[in-house]
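Task: encode each sequence below as structure tokens.

Item 1
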Amino acid sequence: MVRPIMHDPLFLSQPSQSASAADLSVLTDLVDTLMYHRKGCVGMAANMIGVRKRIIAFDDAGMIKTMLNPEIIAKSGEYEAEEGCLSLMGTRKTKRYEKITVRFDNAFGQKQTQQFSGWTAQIIQHEIDHCNGILI
């Protein structure tokens, strides 16, 4: 189900709680909402649809991927980026990393570790910031 986008900075600035298999309907709604906004959005965190759970969905070279409880465990290649957000007006400068390693649970509850670089890494960092209550 496509859900409305949350714009309240007080809600968005609160850290999200861990996700579990009980939250799979949130994951489905998050993907549906991302697909609906795909022309102007490449990633979303669950708090953007009003749910404070550590769930993200993102575009990885045209394929939508999801993560529960993502955590960056390694990063390299710091650079300054300018990003926008569907939940906030305008763009802002922020620090990002060219390469990241992320530990997360997949939709089946299995632990995964994967490396990302470039644009996909930047999207994931933005969405994990959302999970941590960090607004750019």
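Item 2
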Amino acid sequence: MSRLRATRALLSAALLLAAAAGGCGYSLRGNLPDHLKTVSVPVFRNRTTEAGAESTITSAVVNAFTSSGRLKVASLDEADSVLDGEITGYRVQSLTYDSRLNLRSYRLTVTMNVRFRDLRRTEMLWQQDGLVEEVSFDVAGQVSDTISREEGAVKQAALEIGRKIVGHAIDRF
């Protein structure tokens, strides 16, 4: 009989926890308005001299939305919302040197302005100016290796930017 009581107590506690979670507004959709199902992500404007950064970052944001599964990426004329942005800063700076004063690592800093708008209700949902992402990368022996590592760092920074933007857009802060 004590086993039956323990099972009932455990079931009651689980039901109570489920009711409490449901009552506090928790949802797997986050804080997005219910009518938002799709998002358009136009290619970000590039206000820097770094060619191609806009394609890499836009692609990473689209992939982050696709991976999250919360909003389906759609064309602008079919979307409920739009996330657009501009890259305002792109800087590579020397970071560390070895004992012979040879450069060993760089830091890449990307700065952006981002807006997430509800197209159905024509309202701004979220905006952040000056979103910054930094990534450090090591220098290999040859210049060609360094260039390749910088391209990898841009992709890594873009992935982080994409995750941050999708997190903000879905959770609305």
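Check on item 2: The helical segments are 2-23, 53-68, 143-171. The domain at 31-171 is CATH 3.30.160.150 (Double Stranded RNA Binding Domain).
End of task.
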